[in-house]
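Note to self: the last two entries modelled the partners one at a time, which told us nothing about the interface. This time every component goes in together.
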Amino acid sequence: MSLRFAVLSLLDIEPGSGYDLKRRFERSVHHFWSASHQQMYRELHKLHGEGLLDCVEEIQDGRPDKKVYSLTAAGRGALEAWVAKPAAAQKIRDPFLIQVFAGHHLPPAQMRAELQRHLSEHRDKLATYEAQNARFYRRPAEQQQKLWISHQPLLLGIETEKTWIRWAEQLLARLDAEIADRDTAG
Amino acid sequence: MSLRFAVLSLLDIEPGSGYDLKRRFERSVHHFWSASHQQMYRELHKLHGEGLLDCVEEIQDGRPDKKVYSLTAAGRGALEAWVAKPAAAQKIRDPFLIQVFAGHHLPPAQMRAELQRHLSEHRDKLATYEAQNARFYRRPAEQQQKLWISHQPLLLGIETEKTWIRWAEQLLARLDAEIADRDTAG
DNA sequence: TTACACATGTAAAAGGTTACATGATTCG
DNA sequence: CGAATCATGTAACCTTTTACATGTGTAA
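The predicted structure of the combined assembly is written out below.
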């Protein structure tokens, strides 16, 4: 149910094709929603079928033609109605944390390596989000004012990544102590 | 794929029925995984069918009988093999943040009410996690030492909730300023 | 006597992932 | 010459949610 409103929200800001949308998901809303291109295309067809989107075929040269979708009045209505309704809480499902939970089955050195890998991914993520944030603050003041609330999820994304990184760094230190202990004991 | 290993991890600590498992998910791993009872029963049947779980019917009086599942040697092997493999990164999908992202469609006062509702849910969650954390530190020292790594996801859960609450409080303050501005201007 | 906790399931629908399929252009 | 980007799609599969279904014991 939520995917369609993520799509409508993005097309409400600016019309685009399935391909555009997929990239915009990755670039701008990836910290709170993700979807594959197949999901986009399916959702766009459905929304178009229900009269919530208009579709204009745009001929490009040097590139494949694309279908540019934009909200109809009904689409805007549906989005506004949805925004006013209470949203469900996030459901967290993190495979890596299951792994940590069952971590006693793994030698500390191997656990450490896995953690290190995830840590560097999270650092990359944080850097991406901070670049996005910087881009926002380079926009004209009136745009910043107009879009301030849309910008809030990114701020949460940044803080969440920082929290993750702090947690992982502490865990890493503890694993190192564990490994050192083993070496001394063995 | 991950649900089955969450189930195996829990049954590895202590055998139990589908019903038990559902409650243990809610009580002990809810900060990184959730599943309904239907998912449990289906997964238990599958795991049993694949020879990864043993099943013993336990007759109870005053209560319906229950099927108690425990890991077989193959089950333990599968869990160990899985733990050693790299885990996929978490995919975040938070409906409320879509709502915030499209928040300009909503009057600030209404946005504020929604945020307040989510905020109090997150405060409850944090209280639950902190109670769980306190319970952990009341266990005997040897158990704390043995289970320390399984306890780490909870620490992340606590920090993540605190981060969320801080973010929401700042947003709340900003919305209040916005509402005050409107009142003064109107 | 009503509601909640215990206990286990089936079935259908919705949502999401993975693999396959095509074909042009651009960059190294 | 090979890889990446642009652009759209089908099909099969897996996972998750929601609704339905049943029945006992206990506490307010």
